[in-house]
Design brief:
Blueprint lengths: L4 H25 L7 H29 L1 H6 L3 H33 L15 H21 L3 H34 L3 H4 L5 H13 L2 H30 L5 H20 L5 H22 L7
Length: about 300
């Protein structure tokens, strides 16, 4: 069955939007919020390591490699709890460690304004002490106002998720759809078992413009959540809060609960997406208010 031109165009447009969005936001806000590429790169690296390597290895072992845990996690409730906690622990521990490193680097950077230098005839020891205090206060004030680092990191972390979990997968399906329309898909998938090839045909037959729109909506929502979690973690790390890591793990796990329930076929996908869309509106509103006013300690 051929994939309609409208569906194929919708898939391409949705994929392009998701691929470009993190870059467009970064470019738009880079100057006003002093975003730094290094913070975004840190977010990309942390997501790649924590979610794509560590979390996937954990899933492979517990869900497929270990018969005992695989049998236990076949229970829908156990799967929901495990899926939510695994994502929360892996990603938030990585985010915490990454932001601790960024925070140390930020504290080590010379303050932009180092305060007045010692004047002639003034005690140099007293002037040095005053300068040290002024420098420390300037660094602290700059760090407190530096929520741009959180936004840049969140765009890197969320953008990496959008690309690795969304864009690259969708590009594969776009290629499959083009090959299907040209009658070359079976040859391309010749090394796969017949059952797997049939599954690909069935998925292609089920694609619609509406599904392309849902894909784009889900990826945008995920990006909003990742930025929100990054701001939450950054502010907690900045203030030295000991509760921020467990709090972030719990918040992340709660965010992932509806998705895990959908995967376990407990709740319909339409309800899950609606809940996420409403929550994302509130998170986006909070982020807009946050970056419209100076940050406070």
């Amino acid at each position: 069955m051929l994939v309609s031109p409208l569906t194929l165009a919708s898939l391409m447009l949705a994929t392009l939007v998701v691929a470009a969005l993190p870059f467009l936001i970064y470019r738009q806000l880079r100057q006003p919020l002093a975003l730094r590429p290094r913070d975004a790169i840190a977010g990309v690296a942390v997501f790649a390591l924590s979610a794509m390597v560590i979390e996937r290895a954990l899933h492979d072992y517990l869900l497929r490699g270990n018969a005992t845990t695989a049998a236990f996690l076949s229970n829908p409730l156990a799967f929901v709890v495990y899926g939510a906690l695994a994502a929360g622990v892996c990603e938030e521990v990585g985010r915490f460690l990454g932001m601790r490193l960024l925070m140390k680097r930020a504290m080590a950077r010379p303050a932009a304004n180092r305060g007045a230098r010692a004047m002639p005839g003034v005690d140099t020891n007293a002037g040095a002490g005053a300068n040290l205090n002024a420098n420390a206060n300037a660094r602290t004030a700059a760090l407190r106002a530096d929520d741009g680092a959180a936004l840049s990191y969140g765009l890197g972390h969320g953008g990496a998720e959008a690309w690795m979990v969304g864009v690259l997968v969708q590009l594969q399906w776009i290629v499959f759809a083009i090959l299907e329309n040209r009658g070359r898909l079976n040859d391309y998938l010749g090394n796969l078992p017949g059952e797997a090839v049939m599954r690909v045909h069935l998925i292609l037959a089920s694609l619609t413009p509406q599904l392309a729109g849902i894909f784009a909506l889900e990826r945008v929502i995920a990006l909003v959540f990742q930025i929100g979690l990054s701001v939450l973690m950054w502010r907690g790390v900045r203030t030295g809060s000991r509760a921020i890591l467990p709090l972030a793990i719990v918040v992340h796990a709660l965010i992932d609960v509806p998705a895990a329930m959908s995967q376990a076929r407990i709740v319909p996908l339409a309800i899950v997406d609606t809940v996420y869309a409403v929550a994302a509106v509130f998170v986006a509103g909070w982020l807009m208010r946050t970056y419209r006013r100076p940050a406070v300690a």
